[in-house]
Description:
mainly alpha, 2 strands
Amino acid sequence: MHIAYLAILLSATACSAAFALFIRHAAPKFGLIDQPAGRKAHKKPTPLGGGVAIFAGTCLPVAAGLAACFLATKGSILPFSNEALRLHAGGVMANAGRLAWIGGCGLFLAIVGLVDDRLDIGPMKKLAAQILAGLVLFLGCGVSVSVFMDSHIIRLFLTILWIAFMTNSFNLLDNMDGLTGGIACITSAMIFVVAYQTGQVFICALLCAFIGALAGFLLFNFPPASIFMGDCGSLFVGYFLAVVTALTTFLAIPSGSFSSGIPLEESAVASPIFPIAVPLCIFAIPLYDTVSVILIRLHQKRPVFKGDRSHFSHRLLALGMTPRQVLLTIYLATFCTGAGATIFYQSSRWSLLVVPAQVMAVLGVIVLLELAARLRNDQDNDPPSEQART
């Protein structure tokens, strides 16, 4: 399966990068241009629509994988077929219907975001679309955030709330080149580690496609960006992460449980708090950004849904950091909060790798903050220029 994961990752990266290149040149013909104005930091008109590349880079490799699994179940000999593919092909095909529902709702939100990029339909209509997507997923294919609660109504409420909150979190987070895509990449990698350690092959394959799609897009979105993902991308990214989190089992599963047919609820050996604690650790930074921005706007008596420069990234910029330093700081913070959640599932050998990496990441954040503070002090202590004195 390692070869399959790598093939999915690389094909998704290539597909996303190709679409990003095409859209970067085609976007002006459709009026998908983000003009610099007001609170926006970019200095020149920049193409929108990069979310189409992320969506295509995620879904096309998944569709190709489904086709390969279908052929494997029919006994076809594929150039890359092996025992692992034949072993898991039946389980993947059993989830094909669910994947269709998930992809359809993702396409719906991507189109809503694309329309908003072109016409600015407003936050309430986007929120209504997110609620509708959550409702359709829950009723259509059983995607559910249960938190071990039996009530159908509570599960429906939690599912819609989680999808809407995560989608809006990543939509709000999209305020700087490379920020949303990079954080989504890191958090997806953390979920991949959990899914890999607990033997969830289906989730791992989905995440490989998604991470590859984000990587291909980031080639053109890292500052200075030549294309933005727009609401088309941020809505799809937040939605996909919400759904894949709902699908992932954050419980420690004994080896062999997935192939033996034992129900997950009967074979789980971890604490029931895992399904709550692990995602909150992994998504701590985007959730912190969303909650802190809402509280700041409420405190200042400003509309919650009206954009401003009160985000975590903007507050770091105010310290005197450069945009790239801000990105590295938030990337490291996201890694620090997320990596610890993966230790629960592995032996001390994994802990020996994660803990030092976390320490180095924390030290990196400290160094970046100290450099920003020193730069700010140097600027404050500079003698006034001749023009300022005059």
